[in-house]
Amino acid sequence: MSESTEKLLNGILNIKQPDSKKGPRVNIDTILLASYTKPRSKEKILEIGCAHGAISLILAKRGYNMVGIDIQPHLIELAKENATINELDELTEFFTMNIKDYKKKWESQSFDRIVVNPPYNEPWTSKQSPSRELATAMHGIECSLEEIICASKYLLNNKGYLNIVIRSNRLGELFMLLSKYNIAPKRMKAVYPKRDELASVVLIEAIKASGHGIKVEPPLFILDKNGEETEELLSAYRIEVK
Questions:
Q1: Quick one: how far is CA 27 from the chain centroid?
Q2: Among 115, 215, 218, 233, which lies 20 to 30 A Cα-Cα from 171?
Q3: Helical (H) or strand (E) element with 177
Q4: Integer Cα distance of 184 and 47 in angstroms
């Protein structure tokens, strides 16, 4: 499998990734979700669909213990290799698993926080990639958004946190599912390519078994009026290493 190694966060991390036909690669959504996730100390955190481990490793670099799962074995092998490259083995655990099997692996209320960048679309709503690896990562052919939210309800402690990035056109669907499974959205930030354009994705933090009431935060713009990356975007690439 063809791979490449990229420097992330101004060289703080080195991440080995598959080529564009063999799996997902780090993008802005990856960086923004990791930045938006603000764990408290000593939380037990699970990343669902961790791929090659970028989000888990960013959080581990910030000092948090991470468990990452993915259904694709070649991506988990990359995640383990990336942990070793970045000397984060002691803070991370990666293994191959279908999230549908969550009850076989864990008891209920096993995690304080779950982080997930789910597939962009369900398989019936978009044209699938001819690559099985990409279709699994991007089109939800192995796991639906509802299955992820259902698993999160089981795995999260009461008052546990769910951090998720979702395409803006699926926000209504996500809110419906969160309500169905008693996970209340509490913080929301819409991300726009630039001013005067529609939001591309939305960052959400939700809490299991919590009261209603959501804080809609100021928007994040990727580019300013001059076509330059905004300071808020650039700040997501700077992390405080513990």
A1: 11
A2: 233
A3: helix 171-180
A4: 19
Q: Cα separation of 31 and 236, whole Å? A: 7
Query: Residues 6 or more apart from 114 whose CB is under 8 A from it?
Result: 45, 46, 47, 48, 152, 155, 156, 160, 161, 162, 163
Q: What is the pLDDT of residues 89-110, one digit of tens each?
A: 999 999 999 999 999 999 999 9
Its pTM stands at 0.90
Q: Which amino acid is at 125?
A: T
- What digits encode the pLDDT tens for the residues 42-85? 999 999 999 999 999 999 999 999 999 999 999 999 999 999 99
What separation in angstroms does the CA of 154 have from each of 175, 186, 215? 18, 19, 25
Helical residues (DSSP H) of 46-97, grouped into ranges: 54-61, 73-85
Dihedral over alpha carbons 100, 102, 104, 106 (to 10 degrees):
180
Handedness of CA 202, 205, 210, 216 (dihedral sign): negative
Give Cβ neighbours of residue 238 (< 8 Å, ≥ 6 apart): 9, 10
Work out the end-to-end distance of the chain between its first and last CA atoms, rounded to an integer number of angstroms. Answer: 34
